[in-house]
Every structure is written in structure tokens, then in C-alpha cells.
Amino acid sequence: MSLSWYPSEPRQRRSTMVRDVLVVLALFVLAWLARGVYRLVDNLSVVTDAVNSAGSSVQDGFRATADALSAAPVLGDDIAAVLESAGSASGGNVVELALTGDTAIHRLALLLGSLTFLVPALTMLVLYIPVRVAQVRRLDASRLAFCDEYDPERRRLLATRAAMSLPTDHLVKFSRDPIGDLMRGEHDALVAALLSDAGLSPTALPAA
Q1: 109-140 residues labelled b (16+ CB within 10 A) or e (exposed)
Q2: By C-alpha distance, which of 89, 65, 69, 88 is closest to 77?
């Protein structure tokens, strides 16, 4: 027999579907929030981009000056070499620092975005999935246990179980006098209450 993912009793079926849809919507909202966090943090890379540009400008300035002085007689090449070294030591270090900071920002954005989604999503699913699995198992077990509920003797036993085990506030939704119905052999309301509590409707039950 295939598993019943949703109750056949209309009210419980609607409420279960609504809960499932809300869980899926919550996952989409969390994914949207996580994307927003990622983009917000990742946009901090504009700072490192500015630092990178500044470092490159300094380095280019030293290089241009070195190129201009390299043509000078006697000491031109030495002066150019010193300027090139100064450019690498100043602007080059700034560029390297900017690249390191840019990588760190991208990693932080990915980490925070992932945590924004995974922590609440996993918590919600860990709490919800076992409940749904238990509900599906209960529905499947009820379909097997209550099959062929039109048999008179089986109906009497199901009615007895309903009258003896179900909460009174649930029973009175189907019968004003549950115990009286059982004593009089009027089992319809009690069987309906039992099936409803299990999330089943009579037409959903298979034959024995």
C-alpha cells in the first residue's frame, strides 16, 4: 500500500497542506534574506577596491617617475631602480593588502549568508520533518487498522474504541451522547469520530 502523505479528512488535509506550504515559503524567505546578507557584506569590497586603486596609483606614479629619470646620465638607472623599489614597497604592499582584504570579505559574505539560511532552516526542518513523518506513518497505520469499517462487528469494536479512548470534546462534535450511542448500537457517529481523529474519511479506506 502506498503511503498517505496527507489526511483524507478535509479539515486536517487543509491544515496539513497549509503548514507544508508555510514551511516551503519560510525556506524561500530565508534564502532571500541570506542572499541579502551576502550581497550587503560582499559590497564592503568597494573599500578594498578603493585601496587597491590608491595603491596602484602610487605604484604607477613611482614607475612613471623612474622611467623619466632612467634617461638621466650617470645615476639615472640607479635612481630609477630606487624609485621602482620604493613603489613596490609602498603601493605594491597596499595593493597586496587590498587583494587579501577583498578575499577575506568575499569569504565572510559567503559564511554569513550561509549561516543566515542554514541555521534557521535546519532548525525548522529538524523540528517539522519528524512531525510530518510521524503523521504519515500514523495515517498509513490507521488505513490498515481501520480497513473494511463497514463490517458490523468491526464497526462495533471501532465504536467502542472511539467511546473509550477519544477526548470528550472531540466526540461531542459527532454525537451528543457518545456512550448512549454505544449502548444503543448506534455506531455511525462514533466510527466517524474515530476516523476523523485519525485523519481519515470513510471513503478513503481500502477494502479488507
Answers
A1: beeebeebbeebbeeeeeeeeeebeebbeebe
A2: 69
Residue in 166, 160, 43 with CA at minimum distance from that of residue 109: 43
Domain residue ranges of the chain, discontinuous segments joined by +:
10-144, 152-204
The mean of the pLDDT values for the chain is 75
What phi, psi does 172 have (nearest 5°)?
-70, -10
Q: Quote the CA–CA distance of 188 and 196 in Å, as a whole number.
A: 12
Please report, as a single letter, which amino acid is at residue 23. Answer: V
Mean pLDDT of 78-107: 58
Kindly state the greatest CA–CA separation across the chain: 124
With both helix axes pointing from N to C terminus, report the angle between 45-69 and 76-87 in degrees, rounded to the nearest 10. Answer: 180
Q: Is the pLDDT of residue 103 over 50?
A: yes
Which residue's C-alpha cell is 577596491? 49
Alpha-carbon distance values, 3 to 14, 38, 165, 201, 203 (Å) = 18, 40, 25, 16, 16
Look at the block and give the residue holding cell 532571500: 32
Using an 8 Å Cβ cutoff, are 127 and 190 in contact?
no
CA angle 180–182–183, rounded 5-degree value: 65
Dihedral of CA atoms 100, 106, 112, 115 in degrees, nearest 10, equals: -110
CB atoms inside a 10 Å sphere around CB 88: 15
